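check these tokens.
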Amino acid sequence: MSVTTAADELANMETREASPAHFLIKIESFSLLEKCGIDKYETREFSAGEYKWKLIIYPNGDDDKAKDCNDYISVHVAVANTSSLPANWEVNAVFSIFLFNQISANYLSSLGMTRRFLGMKSEWGISKFISKKILLDPSNGYLVNDSCVFGAEVFIIKSETVTECLYLKNVDIPYKRDWKIPNFSLQGHVWQSEQFTAGDQKWKISLYPKGNGEAAGRGVSIYLYYVGSERVKASYTIQIKNQVSDEHKNQIRTGRWFSASNDNWGWGTFMEIATINDPEKGFIVNDSCLLDIEISVLAVAKQ
């Protein structure tokens, strides 16, 4: 038959020198609690964060029959004066419970517990904080001259969480759109399409007949722009049609993420300026260019 020692029982606790940051209570004549009929003691309020709290001590356990804690001291932390809080209040907090060792002059401490306090559950704690056997043995240092000291720390977790929901789309048929760009030779620095909707998102295309950036003077530049605030993943194919043969010029982008801060993907040199302007190539006929797009929205990440 194995024997459980104090060291075994307290293996999941830790010790530290520093006092609890928020509350201490000394109980004198601890043995008289039962005689005085005190099965539950609620301390005075203390402040932590923007809230009031209290420590609740159950000298004979907290009546949690499932945990069979009658032979233990139960200690809870509770939000105080909840009637003064707004409707649907909620507090997320990390709390620790302490017991002073009067021999070693340090504190036994529960590991920090993260809990959500709200109207339906304003009290959280540890049903088996310490057994009566260990507490009542003076050699352990927790009860000396029938006095003991409990403490608590409560740290608020301020909600600054950014939430996001990722919607994945099963796309079988891509969205298709085409434009005829007339007077191609007379276009200025850039031609822009009107906004169009694909996958419930807004887009537009910019075409630079004489190139853009490093491609200026060498290649036709084409970019797909996303017009929105969410993050969108899309695959797309852009085509400049050959109007005299089936040798169209296609460029494909797969699985690109667009966002407000990264709103475009494309090609600095979609095709050579000399190629598109060569009348024998068939890309410009009657000074008009035919531009097509196929686009599939694969995913949308919303806040």
In short: The chain is about 5% helix and 50% strand. The longest strand covers residues 289-302. Residues 132-136 form the longest helix (5 residues).
